[in-house]
Amino acid sequence: xxxxxxxxxxxxxxxxxxxxADMPEVVRVCPYEKGTFILKAIADETTKAIAKLVxxxxxxxxxxxxAAAKADAASPSKNPQSFPRRSRAPVLxxxxxxxxxxxxx
Length: 105
Prior knowledge:
Blueprint: H1 8-11, H2 16-21, E1 27-31, E2 37-41, H3 48-56, H4 61-74, H5 94-104
Antiparallel strand pairs: 1-2
Organism: Fulmarus glacialis (Northern fulmar)
Region (Disordered): 61-92
Keywords: Differentiation
């Protein structure tokens, strides 16, 4: 949104996927078909009504395949569990977490 890359290394992460995997209250990494995955935003109090509406929508098979293809093309690795776990997770600043949650909502 601001035209600048995320400062992943400054925050202690090697990739965007590693960053989102460390924020389970904001985004969920869901396995999909053929080793791909989907990122799902976690609804909070302000977005629960929208999340319910979206959940009721029926997506066509074509839309699901298109989303998986885009996720596959944008991802350097298809397996989020392949990232090594650190013994001590970095502390993500509250402002960064809030901005990411706002972007995902």
